[in-house]
Amino acid sequence: MADFELRHLRTMAAIAEEGTFGQAAARLGYTQSSVSQQVAALEKAVGGPVFDRPGGPRPVRITPLGEVVLAHGRELLTKAAALTDAVDRFRAGHGRVDIGTFPGVSTLILPAVIRRLLDEHPGCDIRLSDVTPADPRLGELDLLFHDGPVDGGTEHVKLFDEPYLLVTGAGAVAGDPVPVRRLDEVPMVAWPPTHHQRWLERTLARAGAQPRFVFRTTGHETILSMVRAGIGWAVLPWLALHAHDAWSDDRLGIHRLKPSPSRELSLYRPAGRTESPLAVRTREIAVDVARELAERM
After folding, report:
1. Strand runs labelled E in the chain
2. Average pLDDT of the chain, as a whole number
3. Which of 32, 108, 110, 145 has the fewest CB atoms below 10 angstroms from its CB?
4. Residue 51, CA distances (Å) to 32, 62, 124, 207 in order
5. How far, in Å, CA of 245 to CA of 252, rounded?
6. H or E element at residue 70
7. CA distances from 280 to 265, 268, 275, 284, 294 (A)
8. Is the dihedral angle over the CA atoms 15, 17, 22, 24 positive or is it negative?
9. What angle (nearest 5°) sits at the alpha carbon of residue 265, between those of residues 140 and 274?
10. Which pLDDT value is given to residue 20?
11. What is the mean pLDDT of residues 41-50?
12. Angle at CA of residue 69, ends 66 and 70, nearest 5°
């Protein structure tokens, strides 16, 4: 069977519904001769007549072959309309975006990004995945928040440099910033030796401080509770302290360190891969949210 076009099927459906070539032509905005040519092309493609033409003003009659063609043709037209709608929605920013993240970002940055994205595109599909900090991989992700290099073909935009801050009991330290070497042999509460914690401890050691870790526990709120109790101090990232509103707690003192440990937070995407409009908009919103946060640091 030779090829035929969707417009031939639309014309056939219009003729079947209107009853005559002339009325179908008026509905579709074609000339009657154009309608006749399209039907002739369709009949050549399917190998037989799809309409019996009695002539004059009398309605045409669809043939048995025409019934088969029209039944399947309407299915094709419905699917074509669905495809057109899906493409239009994709271009408008609907669809799916897959984002890799880690707890600091998930607590403070992503909620603001997601709220804005859903306000603009209520029907979009957002998929989030925790990514191993020690071995980040983009894979099939559209975007990845990370605070270090990501192997493979990637491009990235820097969001900000996030400082780590000293948390003590209120009034325990005078002056700001506090020299890092002041932390040498000081009792401290910290995370277990995760990827980020090992990096922090190496950074402190290079600046002349090897604290005495008296308690290791997971969770920033748990660490803050131990500092409030007086068991030791802590060094935590700005995002974590902001998420827990630590500055409003009169039982805590928060101080900058000198030199200041900091990590560069970036948003990665695959190099060479065409981005969807939704991924592009997500990245734009993330940059705006990060800029607003950086102004508070």
Report:
1. 51-52, 61-62, 96-101, 125-130, 143-146, 154-169, 178-179, 187-190, 212-216, 234-237, 252-255, 257-258, 262-270
2. 87
3. 32
4. 15, 4, 44, 88
5. 11
6. helix 64-91
7. 18, 12, 6, 6, 21
8. negative
9. 30
10. 86
11. 88
12. 85
Sign of CA dihedral 252, 256, 257, 263: positive
> Which two tokens mark 295?
């102004």
Rounded CA separation 212/119 (Å):
48
**Quick count: other Cβ atoms within 10 Å of Cβ 81?**
11
Question: In the structure, what pLDDT confidence band is assigned to residue 103 with cuts at 50, 70 and 90?
Answer: confident
Residue 200: enclosing H or E segment and its boundaries?
helix 195-206
| Residue 211 or 296, more confident | 211
pLDDT score at 53: 82
Distance (Å, whole) CA 78 – CA 200: 58
153 close to 139: Cβ distance less than 8 angstroms: no
Q: What average pLDDT does range 139-157 have in this prediction? A: 85
The string of pLDDT tens digits covering residues 66-83 is: 899 888 888 888 888 777
